[in-house]
Design goal:
Layout lengths: L1 H21 L17 H7 L2 H7 L19 E5 L5 E4 L3 E2 L7 E2 L8 E6 L6 E6 L5 E6 L10 E4 L4 E5 L1
Antiparallel strand pairs: 1-2, 1-9, 3-4, 4-8, 5-6, 6-7, 7-8
Length: 163
């Protein structure tokens, strides 16, 4: 009986945790150890509430319910915070994940990859190098013929400039 109750409790916890992550909400909040070019209060005055949640608090938007996951126009994607050009539509592909995905940044020196241990897992987080702000994550499951990387970005961290 005790094993059944314990198993049921573990199953409930896994289900609750999984649902929270599948809703698009990360469990990570602002990390005071992260070096950013402005304080959170300064960013709060500049960014929209959604941009702040994603970029400063390292939040994640809901998949398939964001501005650029299904954008097929030609152009570039710039940082919502600085306007720095980060990604090109030429490097965008449909990953099926519900977030805009790219095989590479335009200039690798404009982003930095840092270890992210939030949400009970270890991932490679992509931040904007000049600001320290969160953009998304990079994974090794992208198109093999294009380098094998999938830069899974949050639309809220980007602005699209049509060519």
């Amino acid at each position: 009986m005790k094993k059944s109750i314990l198993t049921l409790m573990i199953l409930c916890l896994i289900t609750a945790f999984g649902c929270q992550l599948s809703s698009g909400q990360q469990l990570k909040k602002y990390d005071p150890k992260r070096k950013m070019s402005k304080t959170p209060a300064e960013w709060k005055k500049i960014l929209t509430p959604n941009q702040y949640y994603i970029m400063v608090e390292s939040g994640t938007e809901t998949p398939f319910q964001n501005a650029y996951h299904d954008n097929h126009q030609k152009g570039v994607y710039v940082s919502a915070a600085t306007g720095e050009v980060l990604f090109s539509s030429d490097d965008k592909f449909d990953s099926g994940t519900g977030w805009p995905s790219f095989v590479k940044p335009i200039d690798p020196k404009k982003v930095e990859i840092v270890t992210d241990n939030s949400a009970g897992m270890t991932r490679d987080e992509v931040i904007e190098r000049s600001t320290g702000l969160h953009l998304g994550h990079v994974f090794d499951d992208g198109p093999a013929d294009r380098g094998g990387k999938r830069y899974c970005m949050n639309s809220g961290a980007l602005k699209f400039i049509k060519k």
